[in-house]
Amino acid sequence: MATKEAKVLSFQVVHGTSKFDVRLELPPEEAGDTLCVKHLMDEVYRRTDIPPDAQRLIYKGRSLKDGDEELNKVGIKKGVKVMLIGKKPSPVDDENTREMKSVEETYEKEAKKLGDITYELDGIHRGYLDKEKRSDATKALEKRLASVAESLMRLLEKLDALRFEETNKGARGKRKSLVDKIQVLLNRVDGLSRGVSDMLARWNAL
User: Is 39 helix (H, G, I), strand (E, B) or coil?
Assistant: First the structure.
């Protein structure tokens, strides 16, 4: 059973020349668990507007990075001081973060579309569609592939236009990760498009 200290904890956070008292209490829905670094990060975010990925929390010279790490296991107890390094995003960063979230949502939709197209193409390839219908169905899927590719290219252009401060490493890293994922989808689209062209060429030669 978790101790009371593992469920309720009061200490101080030092941020530059500012200091503020923090009282963490485990949410009722997490009964049985213990307070973790993520609870501290969330509270710091609420008090300072500095998002977790822009926070650097230090206790006794050690950076607290693992959100799932229990506070009592890293030695944080009542009355201690935890140092915070970081600053809240600029208004431009906030706007760009919202734009990146929109890009991410569109990416998920396009990924689903590509999955549906792949499934339908596999069915045609396996002969699940009448021969007289397969050519028209494949051409329709070819157009859908082109639409997905065009949408993904627009997303890359949007991401390329986003600029984040050097200190906002979380957003910069997320943007790079999203660019990489979009590139993977574009490679899949390219491979499927070549396969569709080959299928249509074979059927036209019959």
Answer: helix
Query: In this structure, which amino acid lies at residue 32?
Result: G
Cα atoms found within 13 Å of the Cα of residue 45, Cβ hemisphere only:
12
d(CA 89, CA 56): 14
Nearest to 39 by CA among 3, 76, 14: 76
Between the alpha carbon of residue 16 and those of residues 13, 19, 97, the distances in Å are 10, 8, 25
pLDDT in the model for residue 5:
53
Within the chain, where are the H helices?
A: 4-7, 37-48, 91-125, 131-161, 169-205
What's this model's pTM, rounded to 2 decimal places? 0.58
| Sign (positive or negative) of CA dihedral 97, 102, 105, 109 | negative
For position 118, what pLDDT does the model report? Answer: 93
Listed residue (104, 102, 95) closest to 176, CA to CA:
104
- For the chain, the residue count is 206
